[in-house]
């Protein structure tokens, strides 16, 4: 759950052109990040350790940035094809690839890895339609699905598609703590060399990496300092202790833009801030009240003050650039007159009620913009009490009895794969007896039908799916089970001369270290 309160910037796959020595003239890359490790198990992982795992493990495919000529590019698979009904997908594996334990990449290894994710993975839902996997030879994997499925999306996901050495999977089955001893079993450019919980991760280049010749600028050692405090990251960067800082005080980013020692990259991301209304409690069980509250919020001010300008107005819970984002969905905007009119129509002409809003105390942006929500709702007569809690504590409260839970729950969220329809729209607002992330507790048979039909159509009729998703998103605006605040833009500051840093919203939390190098400033 720590993944909901921190973020970084992705690299789209460009190859670093440097010599392999860092900005300070060494072969060591020093990095500061907020990314904590909740588990080293690549199958169970569903949190911020993906920052490291994406450099240790690889999927069959990588998703390209929005707007690229091709949606996907080869990872451990060099080619792939699908049947007309999108129920059968065949992947041809890359030859000459070895795991860090020296064993070869085979179809059997792919099969075991994906079945492990389906069985116990943090992102097991990505493989819910998987019927069986066939391995006609050592380099061919065939996925048989029970329904039309975009297997390429699942096979390129941030959490649900890492390919793991069979011996490690077997060891982890016998001992669930096997990975937690700092072991790894990937095919990626780095292996885990050292780990001090909450403080440091050291990655070392894997000498047998299949892509080494394509990425000659890779650093041999990556020394990552885990620093939850943004001010501490700034001090480390300015003093030369690190070459990259992924999370700085947003109000101080401008300092680096005018400092010749640094370069600032602002990444579009698939992260977005939103909030849930507790629709089980009065008066929030009335859509008119919820719509009024949503219209009362100062979205421009929230972006300017809370995000220091590093955001764009949200158009529902699907972030910009990610399917099924739609420019026709109206952007969130303030309209106090309409808010007052709706409240009066709902029987609350002067507001007159109190709501409790919870936010993640360790999230600086939420801490900044939560008071703006309180002040705005006071203008329509609604009192808001703010409660900053550690995310896990907030999460536990929200997962309890909705009748005793918060009235408004703030959240930072991003999709697991390059499809926010089957993730954001389904995960955040679809009805469920035991909702995982639908912390509005909202139920709508119409919305469920639209989303379910769209998911079923996506693999064979993407335009048709888009139309259904757009109807679902309009329903979210009209019914307002939540507030859609802004899509995040992430500044990443690096030492001048570091090359190969590019942004890919599909991997918003990741840096791909082997693609970085040094070159002319």
Record keyword descriptors for this entry:
521 residues; alpha+beta; D-Maltodextrin-Binding Protein, domain 2; Dipeptide-binding Protein, domain 1; Dipeptide-binding Protein, domain 3; 3 domains; 4-stranded antiparallel sheet; 14 helices; 22% strand; disordered N terminus; SBP_5_dom; Peptide/Ni-bd; Peptide/nickel transport system substrate-binding protein
The structure class reads: alpha+beta
Shape designation: globular
Relative helix content = 25-40%
pLDDT averaged residue by residue: 90
Stated plainly, the CATH topology of the largest domain is called Dipeptide-binding Protein, domain 3
Contiguous helical run count: 14
β content, as a range? 15-25%
The CATH class of the largest domain turns out to be Alpha Beta
Largest sheet: 11 strands, mixed
Cα distance, first to last residue?
Answer: 38 Å
Q: Tell me the radius of gyration.
A: 23 Å
CATH level-four homologous superfamily name of the largest domain: Dipeptide-binding Protein, Domain 3
Enumerate the spans where pLDDT stays under 50 for 5 or more consecutive residues: 1-25
């Amino acid at each position: 759950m720590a993944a909901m309160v921190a973020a970084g910037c992705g690299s789209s796959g460009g190859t670093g052109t440097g010599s392999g020595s860092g900005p300070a003239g060494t072969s060591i890359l020093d990095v500061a990040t907020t990314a904590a490790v909740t588990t080293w198990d690549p199958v169970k992982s569903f949190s911020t350790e993906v920052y490291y795992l994406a450099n240790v493990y690889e999927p069959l495919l990588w998703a390209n940035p929005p707007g690229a000529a091709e949606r996907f590019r080869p990872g451990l698979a060099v080619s792939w094809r699908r049947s007309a009904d999108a129920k059968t997908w065949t992947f041809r594996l890359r030859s000459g690839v070895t795991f860090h334990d020296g064993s070869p990449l085979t179809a059997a290894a792919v099969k075991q890895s994906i079945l492990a994710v389906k069985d116990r993975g943090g992102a097991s839902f990505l493989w819910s339609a998987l019927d069986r996997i066939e391995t006609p030879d050592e380099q061919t994997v065939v996925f048989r699905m029970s329904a039309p499925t975009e297997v390429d999306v699942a096979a390129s996901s941030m959490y649900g598609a890492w390919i793991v050495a069979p011996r490690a999977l077997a060891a982890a089955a016998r001992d669930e703590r096997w990975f937690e001893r700092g072991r790894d079993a990937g095919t990626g450019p780095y292996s885990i060399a050292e780990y001090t919980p909450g403080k440091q991760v050291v990655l070392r280049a894997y000498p047998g990496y299949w892509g080494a010749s394509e990425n000659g600028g890779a650093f041999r050692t990556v020394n990552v300092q885990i620093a939850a405090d943004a001010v501490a990251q700034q001090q480390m960067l300015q003093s030369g202790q690190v070459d990259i800082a992924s999370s700085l005080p947003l109000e101080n980013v401008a300092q680096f833009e005018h400092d010749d020692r640094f370069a600032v990259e602002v990444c579009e991301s698939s992260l977005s801030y939103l909030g849930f209304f507790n629709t089980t409690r009065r008066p929030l069980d009335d859509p008119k009240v919820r719509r009024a509250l949503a219209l009362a919020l100062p979205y421009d001010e929230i972006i300017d003050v809370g995000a220091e300008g590093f955001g764009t107005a949200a158009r529902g819970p699907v972030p910009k650039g990610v399917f099924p984002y739609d420019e026709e969905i109206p952007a969130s905007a303030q309209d106090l007159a309409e808010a007052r009119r709706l409240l009066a129509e709902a029987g609350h002409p002067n507001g007159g009620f109190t709501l409790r809003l919870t936010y993640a105390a360790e999230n600086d942006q939420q801490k900044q913009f939560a008071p703006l929500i309180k002040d705005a709702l006071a203008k329509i007569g609604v009192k808001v009490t703010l409660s900053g809690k550690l995310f896990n504590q907030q999460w536990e409260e929200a997962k309890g009895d909705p009748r005793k839970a918060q009235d408004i729950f703030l959240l930072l969220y991003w999709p697991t794969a390059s499809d926010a329809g089957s993730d954001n729209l389904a995960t955040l607002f679809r009805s469920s007896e035991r909702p995982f992330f639908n912390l509005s507790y909202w139920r709508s048979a119409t919305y469920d039908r639209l989303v379910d039909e769209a998911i079923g159509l996506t693999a064979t009729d993407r335009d048709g799916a888009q139309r259904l998703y757009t109807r679902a998103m309009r329903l979210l605006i009209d019914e307002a089970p939540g507030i859609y605040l802004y899509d995040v833009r992430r500044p990443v500051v690096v030492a001048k001369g570091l090359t190969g840093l590019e942004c890919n919203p599909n991997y918003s939390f990741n840096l791909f270290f082997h693609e970085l190098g040094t070159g002319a400033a």
